[in-house]
Specification:
Blueprint (H helix, E strand, L loop, with lengths): L2 H12 L3 H12 L4 H10 L4 H14 L2 H17 L6 E4 L12 E3 L2 E6 L9 H16 L5 E6 L3 H7 L5 H5 L3 H11 L6 H8 L4 E4 L15
Parallel strand pairs: 3-4, 4-5
Antiparallel strand pairs: 1-2, 2-3
Length: 220
């Protein structure tokens, strides 16, 4: 089924207020008979087609973070590469294998964290940022290494903070192995490692560069 048609069908079903719509159906069918239920479903086209429409939308919505991530990168691209810069590869969605970075050009390797941090306990976001920073910092290249973020305040507060390295890498076995093989127990907290490598990776705030991203709630 065409996704546009699926959206139309579900919009008809919800009537703009799903809670009110479901409540209305519950009351309409309360104490109803088999015949009334059949007539109600027929009159309102509550059939396999409607259910298929819901599944179609669910299948797309399940990957909406990938869509937002890809569009955010593509919107940014014209403003973050130079006129003489050549794109070598891009990784716009989950499951793209064989590409180390979200973006690689002949002048830079980069990861994008299209996340609007709230300033509270955000361990998953912190873990993701640390992983990208570490991988870029330890990658041998003469190109610029960059992590593009939405706002610098909270990411920098984390990188300059005292959260323990163990807590950041413990849930990623591959990252933990790579980090310990390289540094052992040399660094106890994020700040210590960040200070060691901060000159190798540039954190770039995308909002002044691509103002349209300022209103994005952000995705993982």
């Amino acid at each position: 089924m065409n996704i546009g048609r699926a959206i139309e069908l579900i919009a008809e079903f919800t009537g703009g207020n799903l809670t009110a719509r479901l409540s209305g159906i519950e009351h309409a069918l309360a104490a109803g008979t088999h015949g009334q239920a059949v007539r109600f479903c027929n009159e309102h086209h509550l059939d396999a087609g409607m259910l298929q429409a819901a599944f179609e939308i669910k299948s797309v919505a399940g990957r909406i973070n990938d869509v937002v991530h890809a569009l955010g990168i593509l919107m940014s691209l014209p403003k973050i590469i130079n006129e003489d810069e050549k794109i070598i590869s891009m990784s716009l969605g989950a499951g793209n294998t064989g590409r180390l970075w979200d973006l690689e050009t002949d002048q830079q390797v980069a990861e994008f964290k299209l996340i609007r941090w709230q300033g509270g306990p955000e361990s998953i976001r912190q873990n993701g940022l640390f992983k990208d920073f570490f991988c870029l910092a330890e990658h041998e290249t003469d190109k610029k290494r960059r992590v593009y973020v939405l706002g610098l305040e909270h990411p920098m507060k984390f990188l300059l903070g005292g959260r323990s390295i163990d807590s950041v890498i413990s849930r990623n076995a591959t990252l933990a192995k790579a980090f310990r093989e390289k540094y052992g127990d040399r660094f106890a907290c994020v700040r210590e490692y960040f200070e060691h490598r901060r000159n190798r990776v540039e954190l770039v705030d995308l909002i002044p560069i691509v103002p349209e991203l300022a209103g994005m709630p952000g995705v993982e």
